[in-house]
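ESCALATION

Customer reports they have been waiting on this structure for their group meeting. Please prioritize. Original submission:
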Amino acid sequence: MKLQILKDGQDQIANYSHIVARNNKIDISHIVNNECEQILATDVLDCFTHDGIPELLQALVSKLRMGGEMSVGGTDMRLLCKSIINGSITPTEGSAIISDLYSSSSLQVIQETLEKLGLTVVDTHMNGIHFEIKVRRV
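Update from on-call: job pushed to the front of the queue and completed.
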């Protein structure tokens, strides 16, 4: 199974099962453990509070099969602050971004959390204020 976890209004990718994350919640109880060969959750971290992220990541890892890959991402707090300070994002734009977030994390913190869950980091990517981490379950 290929699973894509979306925020409201995000485009769906064909040939994936889709679940929308809202209000610090996601229902993946119908997915059998170790069923997913690929999980795309490239913006899902923005939909969860800081305290809810470790539980979310643990739940996603439980659905990922051995050899499966997962991509997770969200808004990086340090990059967002830096962009506001250096003027590449106006305070008004920054405020709008912040109002849409439940939390903001950092690539380093999420990477460490995923590694503690036994995943191997395949790739990391930062673009603007957004980061993505691709991991594999080995």
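Sent to customer with the following note: The chain has a mean pLDDT of 95.
Escalation resolved.
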